[in-house]
Amino acid sequence: MTLISNHMPTEELQALDAAHHMHPFSTQTDLAKQGARVITRADGVWIHDSEGNQIIDGMAGLWCVNVGYGRDRLAEVAARQMKELPYYNTFFMTTHVPAIALSQKLAELAPGNLNHVFYAGSGSEANDTNLRMVRTYWAQKGKPNKKIIISRKNAYHGSTVAGTSLGGMTGMHAQGGLPIPGVHHIDQPNYWAEGGDLDPQEFGLERARQLEQAIEELGEDNVAAFIAEPIQGAGGVIVPPESYWSEIQRICDKYEILLIADEVICGFGRTGNWFGSQTVGIRPDIMTIAKGLSSGYQPIGGSIVSDEVAEVIGNCEFNHGYTYSSHPVAAAVALENLIIMEEEGIVDHVKNDVGPYLKEKWEALMDHPMVGEAKIVGMMGSIALTPNKETRAAFAADAGTVGYICRERCFANNLVMRHVGDRMIISPPLVMTREEVDILIERAIKSLDEGMARVKDEGLWVAAS
Ligand code: PXG
User: Fold this and answer.
1) I want to staple 426 with a disulfide (CB 3.0 to 4.6 A). Which of 14, 58, 189, 225 is the partner?
2) 385 and 446: one domain?
3) What is the tens place of the pLDDT at every residue in 139-152?
């Protein structure tokens, strides 16, 4: 067998990759022609590729490497745990110290009465757990018809059958005959794209009240829960108007609908608090967690559940669990990650130090002729690209055409900044320094300038009518 290593020529690695590796969310044949970028190592906020480029990672991997790359402590904890107990389950009246210790820590960090954790291997799996858990909860309470989960268009809750169904991505629903029955989607609070002539706060209320209308239409006795990201991430870092979340909380309370906050991106410091729910001022019954829980060093997700939900579920045998629920190595690494976050004051760094610095620089991107709005909470930000700021116009070209051009320029300038349609998004490692923020912003401006020139050259600087 040939030993495949970082020392092989890039083209050979790309050819082998194209031959045997199927990529998520990619058009395999296009990628095979182009060749995937081979990432070889990473340190701090920097990733390195096989061509020797040093790329500043404005996305923290995939919204997850909150403590940055190259943490020896996490590697050491993993090695120690692997030697001591690499695997054991917690199904049949057994437990182990990593699961106990991580659960205790999460109960301490999570707000209010969220004191119980059910583990999964990812955010998608955790949302599968949530779907079954809320339905089981209501069945246990003698209300088996309370089954429908209300979610939002353009939400992202994962890629499994339940995750995709709960999510509101039409392109994902189209593949595989989803959503499953019992999931209902209302509109998202995306003021830039959908606010029309309303004032932002009025628009926020209008969108929140769609939840009330949906509950009335579907029948309170048929609705189990509402699920939402405090701030939509994969949908384009959509920051709702302030009026939105307090109204949602009021409605959930009024109709006794469980509130599931999907904290997979917003959790663990991303928004300047431990959880996005604290930033937007809500009291969820269940929080979905993953990503920043282990800073991506191990695959682990879960559901943090309120005392009340845990008590009701605890009265039946909940026939649910994954081989890797409470995986000891993943749990040990996650715990060490949280300890690092505490010791280094990383949440405070986001809230009071580099977060506000990034906000100032990010919002100044509004001065760029192609940027219509710049939104940022903590260290997740987005800008809307537009040919006309005053009218909040979209481009006439298919959504994403201009965004893709800008993303390509970012890559060429050694910056990972993603596009979602014609919004550009960032979610860098939380440990980023001010100097690194300056580099990120400098490269972003250069890429926007080059992107705009190309958009004009290609005759794409045209507003949709
Ligand atoms: N909920 C939210 C809010 C997420 O952002 C998941 C659930 C699913 O987690 P797992 O661990 O199963 O992936 C996510 C994941 C993107 C992108 O392109 C975002 C995610 C995953 C993959 C791609 O922005 N978020």
Assistant:
1) 58
2) yes
3) 999 999 999 999 99
